[in-house]
Write a structure and sequence with these properties.
Largest sheet: 7 strands, mixed
Distance between the termini: 34 Å
Number of domains: 2
Radius of gyration: 23 Å
Structural class: alpha/beta
CATH architecture of the largest domain: 3-Layer(aba) Sandwich
Number of helices: 13
Strand content: 15-25%
């Protein structure tokens, strides 16, 4: 979150002390009271007292004392408040210093992005932003069907997601669709699938799956076969590894078209169902704040998406 609290006794909203909020944010970010104390240059006892005071003020437990420390359900509300307050505070200080409407050097921007976007179009967006903007990034890799959970609990300020409905307190913008092609090596296709794609053949052909959250292959199979199938699965949590494993004949998998075009042109890869594809609409959700930092990030992301994704 990168939150730095104000002076002791300064209130926020309904009497929340900024120093207490800073301690809470540091504990959540760093995972322990001791690490939070090092981050804020105070003693662990001071961190403990600030958390206890904040919990007394809120009338409920906010931090699970575990390894690592995690916010309770009530604490998640304050995670987002702490992050938003930190962002606005930095930008206000930059404006008061007479600088451009940008955050002070050292701003850390947290976001959740799916692996295939990271492997294709998203990082150029951050490179464009970073070339003229003093920020660092905390990128959480998360499946597009699950990334909104990190927005809801306040862990990130923005996310690439498959969810078109805005999370409470967020804005949403369509980015475009990522097109996936079902690919394998030509020898794998000939061995397992042959001419025609019968359900029996598809059920016997080994299939790549990114992780237990990845449902793209199953969705594609259901579309082809008209029913659910249960082929043998190889789990491989790597976007680039997917394309390479398919090229080597390990299994077939759904890979972004940007990553397989060259292999298809060379003949190293083949579509198991030529002409069939799966389009996954993506959206950009971010905090609903009047923030130059978030506006600049959003502009960079939407521009990169427009150049790479399908409309």
């Amino acid at each position: 979150m990168g939150y730095e609290g104000g002076s002791r006794g300064t209130g926020l909203g309904l009497g929340i002390d900024l120093a207490h909020l800073a301690a809470f944010a540091a504990v959540v970010d760093e995972g322990s009271f001791e690490a939070a104390a090092r981050e804020l240059h105070v003693t662990p006892s001071a961190i403990s007292q600030r958390i206890k005071s904040l919990e007394a003020r809120m009338g409920r437990i906010l931090v699970r004392r575990a390894k690592p420390c995690r916010p309770t359900e009530a604490g998640q509300v304050l995670v987002r408040l702490a992050g938003q307050t930190a962002l606005l505070q930095r930008e206000a200080l930059a404006d008061l210093a007479g600088g451009p409407p940008a955050p002070a050097t050292g701003l850390r921007m947290q976001m959740a992005v799916n692996a295939d976007s990271l492997a294709t179009w998203f990082l150029p967006a951050l490179a464009t932003l970073a070339s003229g903007y003093p920020a660092t990034f905390d990128i959480r890799q998360e499946d597009q069907d699950h990334s909104v959970a990190l927005l809801r609990d306040g862990s990130v300020m923005a996310a690439v997601t498959a969810e078109p409905r805005a999370v409470q307190g967020c804005r949403v913008e369509p980015l475009g669709a990522m097109r996936y092609l079902a690919v394998a090596s030509p020898s794998f296709r000939d061995r397992y699938l042959g001419p025609g794609l019968s359900p029996d053949r598809l059920s016997a052909a080994p299939m790549l799956v990114f992780n237990r959250k990845d449902a793209l292959q199953q969705r594609f199979l259901a579309r082809l076969a008209g029913r659910e199938l249960d082929p043998p699965v190889t789990f491989l949590p790597s976007s680039h590894g997917f394309a390479e494993a398919a090229r080597l004949g390990l299994a077939w998998g759904m890979v972004p078209e940007q990553m397989v075009r060259d292999g298809l042109d060379r003949g190293d890869l083949a579509e198991i169902a030529p002409g069939a594809f799966l389009d996954v609409p993506l959206y950009w959700q971010r905090w609903r704040l009047d923030s130059p930092a978030l506006a600049a990030l959003t502009a960079a992301v939407t521009q990169a998406a427009a150049a790479s994704l399908r409309r």
